[in-house]
Amino acid sequence: MTQTVETLFDTGLERYKAGEAATDLIPVFKEVCDRAPKLSSAWICLAWLYLLEDKPNSGLKAAQKAVKLNPQDPQARVNLAIAMLETNQKGVRQHIDVTQQLILVNPEWREEIQNSIADGLSRKPDWPSLVKVKNWIFGD
Predict the structure, then answer these.
(1) Which of 70, 47, 69 is nearest to 59 (CA)?
(2) Within its chain, how far is the Cα of 53 from the centroid?
(3) pLDDT, tens digit (0-9, with 9 covering 90-100), for 62-71
């Protein structure tokens, strides 16, 4: 029996939260993106997993798709900023500025971004691009 897109996504997310390696989860989220190409949250997750696995070009493509689908999602913007830094793209500041505006509007998003950054640094300590993005967004 084939899993629904929602079940596949939720299962992948649970596996990630349980500490499963990003490399094992990339195929899960690729399948979700293939089956539901307009689901921005799946593209956001896929971009994050690629970035954790030092695949910045794939991460950039997924992050661009996520931002295109949902320009008001701060995590999509954070992922894109990281991917742009890691692929030496210009225009990072714009995404940092939008993220700062979004987290001012919604305090829950601020907490989500802080948690996401903490998670990223726990999985990939001393991640230079993530540390830069964190400092730019939060001024730490």
Answers:
(1) 47
(2) 12
(3) 999 999 999 9
